[in-house]
Amino acid sequence: MEPLETRLSAIYSELPSGERAVVRVLLDDYPFAALGSLRALAERAGVSPPTASRLVSRLGFDGFADFQAAVRATAREQDRSRLREFVTQHSDTDRAAENLKAGLESALTSATGPLLAAAATRLAEAKEVWALGGPLSELAAEYLIRQLAGLRPGAHRVPDSPHARARTLLDMSPSDVVVAYDFRRYSADTARYVHAARSRGARLVLVTDAWESPLADQADVLIRLPREAAGPIAPLTHEIAVTELLLVAIAAQLAPATRLAELDALTHDLLPPTS
Q: Is the peptide bond before 185 cis (omega within 30 degrees of 0)?
């Protein structure tokens, strides 16, 4: 029996935006999102019940009850398969390493030269750059800002508290750029900040996954990484690697040799004397 997750993935790119929203909710909390009422699923996706019903019909089910039965059946089979795989592959670290390497290569391939150049131009020319992410991807945002601050002034990590975030929005303008890292499960806090920044004219560079953050339609530049391929954890290496490529592209546009040399000299001056 083909997993419903696979079927949803296969048709995702062909769906209208409302049905895509339903698919994102289903995949983000699978299988549990499918086990409530049709109305509850539609409300979570921000669409009408008929929109969710059309997706069910598109998948070939006579009604939502039939869809739920299929979800339960495929979820049980997946649990069995995962248990068998865990038993047979628990010690197979070589395969896990190969999966991680393959996922990394796929992520790097997805960040094409023109895409990186478009993002780099916006980050090089922006008056201020603000970066943020979710519970794990915030580490990629932090890394971007730490490195970017050496290349140009005005690079900031978006603070955590709502009050501090509000202060960053006070003087935000169309000359500013927000860089958001947003992966399943998508961050509501990130979405609120981005919507507020966009309302003040700021542009958005979005790094997301194959399912696309709900913020995708807000992005001036969208860098979409493939689905994670490293097992039970989402590999941060993909996000950091693409961030490295982006930093290289920015440096090529800014030619920051003088600034970096001054940074090195200032760092040296602040080091404690050696005994």
A: yes
